[in-house]
Amino acid sequence: MKTTAKAEDTNPKLADFLCFAVYSANLAFGKAYKPILEELGLTYTQYITVVAMWEEDNQTVSSLGEKLFLESNTLTPILKKLEGMGYLERQRDPEDERQVRVNLTKAGRKLREKAFGMDLAQACGLEPDEFSKMQKSIVALRNNLVKAVSEQE
């Protein structure tokens, strides 16, 4: 009986997995941000897509996908939905018909005023300096993982 208890003690616990901490934090973000994003009428993925467009308008679908870490088959339906909502428009690049360019509409740019009046960072319950440190640590973690995967390929 003691051997079983000892074996159980040496097994890693779910709470010890960094990947689970990040995964469960992501789920918690979704719940915390939901009421805020509902006011905008956007899902989280739609929101980050629009934020990326505020940073740089007139992007190709492929460059936008790279920024968001989304494949084209995931991003395209999001763009179609945002286009249907009147926030952006897609059109073929006249210089390269293979590329589709995405541009914000007036309504998409105006949405920024409403969105930045909402404090998504406050939903985290962190002080501004803690928030900044946490964000930088998570970006470093993500970049390390991306690098490790690319080195394996």
TrEMBL record:
The keyword Transcription applies. GO terms for molecular function: DNA binding; DNA-binding transcription factor activity. One of its GO terms (biological process) is response to stress. Keywords: Cytoplasm, DNA-binding, Plasmid, Transcription, Transcription regulation. It is found in: Cytoplasm. Residues 15-153 form the HTH marR-type domain. One of its GO terms (cellular component) is cytoplasm. This is Transcriptional regulator, MarR family. It comes from Paraburkholderia phymatum (strain DSM 17167 / CIP 108236 / LMG 21445 / STM815) (Burkholderia phymatum). The lineage of its organism: Bacteria, Pseudomonadati, Pseudomonadota, Betaproteobacteria, Burkholderiales.
